[in-house]
Design brief:
By secondary structure, the chain is mainly α. 67% of the residues lie in helices and 0% in strands. It starts with 13 loop residues before the first helix and ends with a helix.
Length: 269
């Protein structure tokens, strides 16, 4: 009989994982410093070389962020007693990433808008040329989306992102810049899935856009039958006002697409 495979084979020790974390942190810090140095250069002298370099460094920053996230999760599996410390480090990582990536994305978006063809730009923006380089309002940007979101939470997130996207007229920026803004609002798992399904020409909106891909990913996790089951099983809680109950029921009904429910399907519930 052949020997059984060792489940621990190939797994790193806690010391090895922490050593890897230290190496990743060194690369992470260098990427941050480089991006921060390039942003004012792109803002002051947006040459093609500076812009291209900022894009490359921002991509490297994103990759290094994911390297750190994966390594922290590996550490969590091998050292669950350090979960609180790991959660704190991941929160700090996310805050740092947003603080560094936001001005970089704003600089790239402003460059794309400023260098758009004047006639196309004025028509798309519906404002005179030269008035479209306003700073992107990141206060409207939604939080980090993950697959634990419920359908109701996803709907709210999508509304917030569309508001952020349209208010800042990001449709005028290069598609890759638009994608960067969206990906900065997704966790690693979702960004990886969307990256596998798209390319540099995939738009944000439209039937084959990234937002529709997002909805399909959540539909796989939370199918229509489950949404309809939630609607029919929902009941008014003790102390819940009639107004809140009706609002929640209306929300669940919209997600369940009850207008398409057939008589045969209704009998299931």
């Amino acid at each position: 009989m052949p020997p059984r495979p060792d489940p621990a084979a190939g797994r790193r020790t806690v010391a090895e994982i922490r050593g890897s974390l230290n190496a990743h942190k060194g690369h992470w810090t260098r990427r941050i410093k480089t991006v921060q140095a390039l942003v004012p250069l792109v803002q002051a002298r947006p040459t093609s070389d500076f812009v291209a370099q900022l894009r490359r460094e921002l991509q490297s920053l994103v990759k290094k962020r994911y390297d750190l996230e994966r390594t922290y999760e590996e550490l969590r599996r091998e050292s669950p007693e350090d979960t609180d410390e790991i959660d704190e480090r991941l929160d700090t990582l996310e805050e740092t990433y947003l603080g560094v990536s936001t001005p970089a994305l704003e600089a790239l978006a402003a460059h794309e808008i400023a260098h758009a063809a004047p006639a196309t730009y004025a028509q798309a923006a519906q404002v005179p040329a030269g008035q479209g380089t306003q700073k992107v309002d990141t206060s409207l940007r939604p939080g980090i989306l993950n697959l634990d979101y419920t359908p109701a939470e996803l709907d709210k997130w999508l509304k917030k992102f569309r508001s952020f996207y349209t208010t800042n007229r990001l449709d005028r920026a290069d598609v890759t810049v638009q994608q960067s803004y969206l990906f900065s609002c997704l966790n690693h798992e979702l960004e990886t899935r969307l990256s596998d399904l798209s390319d540099d020409t995939t738009t944000i909106l439209g039937g084959n856009g990234l937002l529709e891909m997002l909805k399909r990913e959540f539909d796989l996790r939370y199918p229509l039958f489950t949404k309809r089951w939630d609607f029919f099983q929902y009941s008014q809680a003790n102390g819940q006002s009639n107004r809140d109950y009706e609002a929640k029921l209306t929300e669940l009904a919209g997600q369940a697409d009850l207008g398409q429910l057939t008589v045969d399907e209704l009998l299931v519930f």
